[in-house]
Amino acid sequence: MSVVAFEREHSAGLWGESELNTIVAALNVALASGNGREWETGMTERGDPQLYLLGPLPDQVCELCVSRIGGRYILEDGSGRLLFEHRSLALVALHAKAAVRSTRWPLVARVLLLWCTVRQIIHDEVEPVFAESEELLIELAPQLVAFA
Predict the structure, then answer these.
(1) pLDDT greater than 80 at residue 76
(2) Tens-digit pLDDT profile for residues 102-140
(3) Containing structural domain, residue 58
(4) How many domains does the chain have?
(5) Of 56, 73, 76, 95, whose CB is crowded by the most CB atoms within 10 A?
(6) Half-sphere exposure of 7 (CA within 13 A, CB side)
């Protein structure tokens, strides 16, 4: 991992009101869903501002993090993986909104369960019928050839 030295601004540790409004508006869908998500501000070790989207109580794990470092806005997921980085907060907010909305795992799990169920039904019910038909064809093939 390489370390990049960013330029420091005088008010590096504080979020501006317009910045907070932009980020919170992007995360509004996640915050208004009624599942107990909240946001909180903090600072990096170097004093740069961060905003965290926290999951529901009691754990309140970090689901998303937006940081401003040297005039660049950095969007990370809860594991610290870089999702997007840009100088435009509006672009970062759009990516944050998309990251919050991309939690379609319950739907994926249902589709996967349905697919596995259909495969199991085919394996248990349909394949034995074809296997019996194949055995019957093998038995009758010599007699059919005699008629040809």
Answers:
(1) yes
(2) 556 677 788 899 999 999 988 888 887 777 777 777 887
(3) 17-101
(4) 2
(5) 73
(6) 5
